[in-house]
Amino acid sequence: MTLTTDSKSPQKYSLPQGLSYYGIGEALKLIFNPLPNLEKYRDRYGDIYYSPKFFAFNPFIVIGNSQGVEELFNLDPDLLECGTSNASLKTLLGDQSILQLDGTPHQQRRKLLMPSFHGQRLQSYGKIITEVTQNIINSWQKYYVFSMRNVTQ
User: Fold this and answer.
1) What is the pLDDT of residues 76-87, one digit of tens each?
2) Dist CA 115 CA 122 (whole Å)
3) Cα gap 44→13, rounded to integer Å
4) What confidence score (pLDDT) does residue 153 get?
5) The pLDDT value given to residue 5
6) pLDDT digits (tens, 9 = 90+) for 40-59
7) What is the residue extent of each domain of the chain?
8) CB-based contact 106:98 (threshold 8 Å)
9) Angle, to 10 degrees, between the axis of helix 34-45 and the axis of helix 24-32?
10) pTM for this predicted structure
11) Who contacts 98 (Cβ-Cβ below 8 Å, separation ≥6)?
């Protein structure tokens, strides 16, 4: 999401601390081994930090805790633009993805999706997730070494 401001607004927004640029080494580490590097940045800069332009991706803010994510989703929707900052995902997600929409179209699509993420509905997903996980675990062979990350992605 991109924070937008009205030029008449007296508020000034500042970016959190973070990286100033990605060198080629850092970029390669992020591509081929992202999680340890994202954790390294979180340890260095905190749960919320700035990430500069990365290839086709515009600069963005990384939020690494649930409270920050909750605050983000409770902001005034007129302050944020999703479509602009997610433009690089358009070919993957399509023009009408909720991540590409702003304003009223975004709110309408979100309203359609939200019932799937409420209490009892999520509990029913828990049963399905448990069953799928158990089936996968039951297919593993004893003493066979494998990468857990590959299995869980």
Assistant:
1) 777 777 777 777
2) 10
3) 22
4) 67
5) 44
6) 999 999 999 998 887 777 78
7) 2-117
8) yes
9) 120
10) 0.52
11) 82, 106, 109, 110, 113
Cα-based distances in Å from 124 to 116, 118, 119, 131, 134? 10, 10, 9, 11, 16
* Pair 89, 99: CB distance under 8 Å: yes
Long-range contacts of the stretch 94-103 (C-beta < 8 A, 24+): 103/77, 103/78
Through-space distance between the first and last CA atoms of the chain, rounded to whole angstroms:
24
Q: Is residue 10 classed exposed, middle or buried when 0-12, 13-18 and 19+ CB atoms within 10 A define those classes?
A: exposed
Residue 1: pLDDT over 80:
no
Q: Return the beta strands (E) in the chain as ranges.
A: 2-3, 48-51, 60-63, 80-81
Residue 8 has pLDDT above 70, yes or no: no
Give the DSSP per-residue string, 23-48: -HHHHHHHHHSHHHHHHHHHHHH-SE
Identity (one letter) of the amino acid at 47? D
